[in-house]
Amino acid sequence: MPMNLRSPSRLRRRSILAAGIGLAIARPARAQGFPNQPVRLIVPFSPGGAVDFVGRLVGQGMGPHLGQSVVVENRTGAAGAIGAQFVARAPADGHTLMMAPITNFAMLAGMPGNNLGLDLGRDFAPVGTIGAVPIVVVAGAGVRASSLAELIALLRKADRPLSYASSGNGSTEHLAGEYFATLTGTRMLHVPYRGGAPALADVLAGQVDLMFATLPNVMQNGSGLKVLAIATGTRSSVMPDVPTTAEAGLPGFQVSSLYGVLAPAATPGPVLARLNRDLRAALAQDDVRNRLIQQGVLPEPTTPEATAAQLREELSRWGKVIVEAKVTLN
């Protein structure tokens, strides 16, 4: 049954949805012989973006611990829903996983008019969290603003709304932009893409004015852009000269995207435990951890249960933002 959150009871349904995650974790089953073939890690966004980078790095790190290769496969579209639906329908044996932007999917779950067929509690079981990816406010060279304060002033006096790119309707970049507009009392034109890398490329080319982009995407693809602020409480060690949004005059705007690994809901508990163990082992490797940090990802590995709790928190937070900003998928 596709998820439809149009009714007044959508908040209650989200609570039931999130509670189901814990039930998926607790299902008893045996994991004899796992893994007995290569593991597929589905990335639901285009190659070159932050989700893709993190997925490939983590997959390479997990392979030796699993004793099987981890094959990364990109399945794009519908703000990640195409890849998510593929994983949800895959055999629940641990051999098909998803590199998941957890915050993004929590946002999608709270969207009015969301008929994308995603039910996080019914369709997925958490393997574990990888870490947090901050959002960075960037502008194209043609935008007449060199600071966050100047950008806000420009947005307020502009004859036409400035445009901002995202990796798709309902994505973290999309909701970050709507949240920013609500906090600043400004208007912007949202331009969705099929991934973070092509979206940022068009900002760089001057086709779109702004982006509320993930830090890894900016570090990989953002050379030549104006980096105005990072939406975290403290400065990033990889961009120490970039002020936080609080330092730049907008303390309420803090947005990071949690990344994690999800499996089909009926995946046996022992398989989830094995996958979590090997995920944490991969993140403990110096080469993997250092590359994540160098690309702006703060590694924060968790248990499946802790990941489920994080998802519940994200559902609550972004559900409120969506209601206040009156955001829809259209």
UniProtKB/TrEMBL annotation:
Q: Where are the transmembrane segments?
A: none
> Which InterPro entries does the UniProt record give?
BUG, Bug_dom1
Q: Which UniProt keywords apply?
A: Signal
Q: Which residues form the signal peptide?
A: 1-31
Q: What Gene3D superfamilies does the annotation carry?
A: Bordetella uptake gene, domain 1, Periplasmic binding protein-like II
Organism superkingdom: Bacteria
Describe the family membership recorded for this protein in Swiss-Prot or TrEMBL: Belongs to the UPF0065 (bug) family.
Protein name in UniProt:
Tripartite tricarboxylate transporter substrate binding protein
Query: Where does this protein come from, organism-wise?
Result: Teichococcus aerophilus
